[in-house]
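@channel sequence for tomorrow's demo:
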Amino acid sequence: MKNPVFSDDNTLNNLIINSWAYPVLYFDTDFHLVYANTSFLNLIDPDKQQVQGKTLEQLGFPENKCKEWHAVLKNVYNSRSAVTIDSTFTLSDDRNCSFRLSLMPISNNADQFTGVSVFISKVKFILEEKQDKNEDEFLKLVEKAPDIIAIHTDEKFVFINSIGLDLLKYNAKENIVGKHLWNVIHPDFCDQAKARIRKNYDASLLLPAVESRFICSDGSGLDVDLKSVCITFRGKPSILIIARDNTERLKKDRAMADLNNQHLNLINAIPDIITFKDSEGNLIIVNEAAKQFFKLEGHRWEGKTLKSVTSNVYKKKSIALETAAVADVEDAETWKNGKLTVFNRPIHDQDGRLRHLELRKVPVYTSDGKPKSLITIAADISKRKEEEMRLRLLEMAIENSNDAIQIIEINKTDITKSKVIYVNDGCCKMIGFKKEELIGFNPRIFRNMKSDKTAKDLYHDAVMKNKSFTMEILDSKKDGTKFWSYLSMTPFFNAEGASTHWIGIKRDVTEEKEHDQNIKRAILQGQENEKAFVGRELHDNVAQIMVGAKLSLGMLKATTEKEKKWLKEANENINDAINELRILSHNLAPSSFKHANFINHIERLLKSINKNKQFTIILSADELDKISLTSELKLNLYRILQEQLQNIIKHAEATLVKIEIRIVENYIKMTISDDGKGLDRYPEYQDPY
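structure tokens (generated this afternoon):
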């Protein structure tokens, strides 16, 4: 029991207790008397004033009463609960009296047991020699009290202090003194007040504070915290009211309640799982996300442990026990750390599905350092874990890929400042560089485009226009080794739709390229072999047959002029046929290019197609015989030129043909042009872009 009267003035407390008509005692834990009010002193001996620190025996109580009272005091001490008994007592002047003892345990602000208070009521006679003097002193003092202090007798006001007049908005005491109590108590609180009055008269104890409401003189309401106790005032049983204006407190309480509601709404709006536990591990607050995760709708969880809740909700008890056990271990570790502690662990929900949670647990302490509550904020990171796993698998696949994979951070303002931010192991193996030699550098190191203007233009155009592109380039390794690669570049766009990076995938296609070249060589060689066979057949067989026919015609004798004419025309036709066969066989099976001057072969080809002088042919060529050209390359160039000249003859209707053969670094560049009709005469072949 705390201080029975909420006043900051101990003198006021003592005067109020001394004004009570019934004796009041206070014993310490050793059952020595610490305090006794005036009514008790008057009851046992009007002249006995020094009672503090004395036992019942030292106060002159009979032995039988001392034993009786000691037994009751020990009962209250051991049980920490109130006890009421009826007893009798013979006073020092041999008068007998009966009374009721109400004993209550007393605790300090730290809830430590300090003693027992004893209220003596229903005494058949009471010495009141000093009552009037005590009442006058009491009334003078309560005028200065900061709270409303009023007394009512027979449910009518007989006294009210000045602060009471001000708060209830009365001009003078006579306007309220004599007024019926129920004209001042708000109707909503009348039943409460009637019950307390009955309890006051029955127990003669100071009742704890309750919220109540008075009606002021202007009809407005005044919210108060009210305490009351039964006293004797002017010789009559009366009720002392002590009321404190709690308007500001209620405003603060309402503001605090609103703030709490806002906090609860905020907590409920957070998608993370949030729980509050008290120091014993019982749930205090559970937000909506937690209710959904643990499926708590329709289940009581307030004041229960997580183990108790999950045991009732989870389908599998083993999962519930495991979940609660792990949570208990984490809670204990958090309290031990005394600060924010983070945990990452898998947890099964009530359906048995495995979920990954990131838990942040925060311990909260009271002002004196005692554990108060534990806040847990758990984010469901299952999707993040799945994504991390997917990314790890993807990274593993990329790292172990034989293709070279690179990620480039693009600087469109100055493309030379673009830099590589990632390369896989396959890239290092393919081009012979270490990762530290590539990452952070300009991606030019990947490309061998110095002499390939088309490739450089394609790359630059694609970067500027955010277009994917593919190309086949002759690449080179760090040691200068050449290899063919197939490069695919794709832009990466951020959330705003801007391309910030490029992902490049490069594949070594040297073997495929060589395989294709071998196939092409085989096809070309087969074609050449076929042409050579046909050429030889035309030259060695058909031409010889034509020569034989010519000899046979020469043996014929013409008898008439007409026959002579026929023989002459036949010989000329056979001669023309033999010449055409020789030209055709030569074109089908030209001489070997191993040792002959390649340009001479070109000139003979041009002469053969222009025997009628229908074209002006301009040939401009570098000294190709000064460089090492394979017979295969010479034959390919020869066939390309031969095919293009045939197209010009058949389709171009040209009169001028220009042929350029140049040596450009390690390449042979052959350009064939004419002044005939081009593709612009055929709209169906035009490039729509």
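heads up for whoever presents: Residues 510-554 form the longest helix (45 residues).
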